[in-house]
Amino acid sequence: MVTVGIPRALFYYYYFPLWRDFFRQLGAEVVLSAPTNKKIVNQGVALAVDEACLPVKLFYGHVVDLIGKVDMIFLPRLVSTARKEYICPKLMGLPDMIKASGIALPKLIEVNIDMSKSDRALKQAALALGRYFTNNELRILRAWNLAKFSQQQFEYLQADSGQLALEALELWNGESDYPRLQRQEERPRIGLLGHGYNIYDRYISMDLIQKLQKLGAQVVTAENIPADIIEEEAARLPKRMFWTLGKRQIGAAFHFLKRPDIIGVIHVASFGCGPDSLVGELIERHMRRAKTMPFLFLTIDEHTGEAGVVTRLEAFWDMISWRDAQCR
Amino acid sequence: MPVTMPHMGHLYIPLKTMLEYVGLEVIVPPLCSKRTLSLGTQNSPEFACLPLKINLGNFLEARELGADTIVMAGGLGPCRFGYYAQIQREILRDLGVDMKMVILEPPDTSMRHLFEDIRLLANGHSWFTILQAIRVAWYKARAIDLVEMKLQEIRPREQQPGGADKIFERFLRDVEKVNQKSHIYQMAEDVIAEMEGLPQIECYEPVRIAIVGEIYTVLEPFVNLNMEKHLGRMGVAVRRSIYLSEWINDHIFKGILPLKSNKVVRKLARPYLNHFVGGHGWETVGSTVEHAQLGFDGVIQVAPLTCMPEIVAQTILPRVSNDKDIPVMTIYVDEQTGEAGLITRLEAFVDLIKRKKQLKKEVMNT
Ligand code: SF4
Ligand code: SF4
User: Fold this and answer.
1) What is the pLDDT of residue B268?
2) pLDDT (tens digit, 9 = 90+) per residue, B190-234?
């Protein structure tokens, strides 16, 4: 059976169920790179230019981790996943960047995913991908529909059942038989903003989510908010936000401001992230103007020390839980 | 409503012409300076890219001179520029600076908005006058570029460095004042002749370097720390990948004039970079290939620190450099970059190129 490697980085955290089931239905075995570890970080840092952000560096590391273990590596060019929106200029160039690195790569599965002009582009992309495995269009489309169903379940788990992606993903990546799904309890809630590949990567987020849960918080992310609410909230901006992830963060931030059960908001961004340098600024200004929501901004890169983050988290938690107790 | 605008190289000259043509009072911000930079940096998000910060400084300085309206361009992504005005508006609001922003957004679904905004600015002038204003502005942009290309060629050969620069500065002041096509081009021709008449070092074959990269850093001498001038003094003839008039032709006139176009350059970027990446990243890779093919001796990429499209290009350029056998250097600038450090790096690069050329010659002769 042909094996397809998927780097456990970047949009893995958003689309793994879709990709996994699509390739499986087409008869491939899907292999993930290892969870981010020190070696992967070091390899990524060594291969990418210094100026790249950590998530992009990590992507290199995860690609290298797959070499020798798989027949093909899935390397899509993610331009846009919604009309008139983009992900990030860097992701638009990522496949070319990886190829310029001189790494001895196995066969690549490449496709451009660009829905900025039309949703139909997605189906075209699926067909193009499927042709790596079969010429039978019907079979490709059937695989695609099944994969889409899987993806919907994944999104439903997050948006409607309040599950966090990193735990929900364990249902798909087979790492846990009994996924540790987040229990919905009456605990103080913290809104956590940030790109999925930062907040759900246990290694580079330094287990931020677990740390918050241990402190006694229930974590709510942008993925836990239904898409129509995000749209509605983000539409309050005077100009449409053209970054998909930026729109999610802003929409979620506005929504958090309205929710009495959210007692504090944390925004995690990669050091040097282009979109977040502006999106983060907008969020911070709106939070400050509202004056009611405690807000913590954390940047992370390969040099971030865990001790510093822990100190800041604990101080923030003490401050907001004290405030919360006063208000009750 | 005295209007102002962000600075980007000599853009202020055609832009001022255009706005005045439709009867607006224009206040050009003081040329970018340390003060502009520090005003902008103090009030901008720390990790924003440099042009946002400097432009904010321009607005604050223009406000001091009495401007109350800002005219600037918007954008639809994928890069940060399209959101600059939104961020700057929020910053001005929190600073309590009351300035109106007229943001010319590229047509999204319909041209209506853009037309409405232009009509609003043109306070009642007819489309004929507006088109006339655009034409005069275009002639100036083109004339300035033609003279500057000559300047870049003369600098390395000048017997007394600085002479051609003086002539160029005078030309920039003079061309502001004329508004007729024939006068503008006549002035440019005279100035070009004057530069050619300067005493030059005979039979010196300058090193040729192309400057590629992010448009703002390429075009704004304050931000690239007068890179072109320094290179000129080191005996280098410089070419840029971007000239304002070519940019206007590509983006505003949609390439209808027969000038060098970015379409050609983008094709040259294949197979190294096969997709648009925002900003000028694609062109940076393509121009590097182009200038290698034209026989240039080296390429310098300039960009603001954290510039996304240029990080993509930077990642790919070593491959191009290797394949096409052309030295490439990347220079990022931010508010901390100093001129002295830059000069050292430029000198080292020029030395490397000269040695490489020498070596080639020796190999050829044996
Ligand atoms: S969005 Fe930010 S973190 Fe993500 S790839 Fe782009 S620059 Fe990096
Ligand atoms: S091209 Fe570079 S400088 Fe321009 S907006 Fe994008 S990141 Fe900023």
Assistant:
1) 96
2) 999 999 999 999 888 899 999 999 999 999 999 999 999 999 999
Q: Is A88 in the pocket of ligand 1 (CB under 6 A)?
A: yes
Residues A29 and A166 placed together within one structural domain of the fold: yes
A323 touches chain B (CB under 8 A): no
- Predicted confidence band at A297 (pLDDT cuts at 50, 70, 90)? very high
Q: Are residues A199 and A142 in the same domain?
A: no
| Residue A181 resides in a domain | no
Residue range B154-173: average pLDDT? 96
> Residue A96 and residue B274: Cβ atoms within 8 Å?
yes
pTM score, whole prediction: 0.95
Q: What is the DSSP string of B217-271?
A: HHH-TTTTTTHHHHHHHTTEEEEES--HHHHHHHHTSTT-SSS--HHHHHHHTTT
Q: Are A79 and A87 in contact (CB under 8 A)?
A: yes
Instruction: For tokens 């931020």, name the residue.
Output: A208
Q: Quote the minimal CA–CA distance from A89 to chain B in Å.
A: 5
- Written as one string, the DSSP assignment of B267-315 is HHTTTT--S--STTHHHHHHHHHHHHHTT-SEEEEEEETT-HHHHHHHH
Query: Which is more confidently placed, B364 or A87?
Result: A87
Q: What residue of A is the nearest CA neighbor of B86?
A: A239
Residue nearest to atom 3 of ligand 1 (CA): A273
Regarding beta strands A112-114 and A77-80, do their DSSP bridges make them parallel or antiparallel, or are they unpaired?
parallel
Residues A144 and A196 in one domain: no
Which atom of ligand 1 is nearest to A52's Cα? 8
Q: Check whether residue A206 and residue A245 sit in a common domain.
A: yes
Asked whether residue A161 falls in the same domain as residue A253, the answer is no
The rounded distance, in Å, linking the Cα atoms of B88 and B43 is: 9
- Asked whether B285 and B269 are in contact (CB, 8 A), the reply is yes
User: Are residue A106 and residue A248 in the same domain, yes or no?
Assistant: no
DSSP type of residue B163: H
Polymer length in residues for chain A: 328
Look at residue B95 and give its three-state secondary structure: helix
Of A89, A273, A289, Cβ closest to residue B278 = A89
Domain boundary residue among A172, A197, A221? A172
* Structural domains in chain B plus CATH codes: 3-125 (3.40.50), 130-204 (no CATH), 206-366 (3.40.50.11900)
The whole-angstrom distance between B352's CA and the closest CA on chain A is 22
Residue B311 to residue B304: CA distance in whole angstroms? 10
Q: Specify the CATH number for the domain of residue A311.
A: 3.40.50.11900
> From the candidates B41, B44, B47, B289, which should be mutated to test the interface with A, based on the most A CB atoms within 10 A?
B47
Residue span of the structural domain in which A157 resides: 3-172
Is A128 part of a structural domain of the chain? yes
Alpha carbon distance A223, B317 (integer Å): 37
Number of C-beta neighbours around residue B176 at 10 A: 16
- Residue of chain B whose Cα is closest to the Cα of A77: B275
Q: At which residue do the structure tokens 């890779």 appear?
A: B285
CA distance A268 to chain B (A): 14
Contact between B236 and B207 (Cβ < 8 Å): yes
Report the amino acid identity of residue B294.
Answer: L
- A195 and A150 within one domain: no
DSSP three-state, residue A309: helix
The pLDDT, as a whole number, for residue B111 is 61
A96·B278 Cβ contact <8 A: no
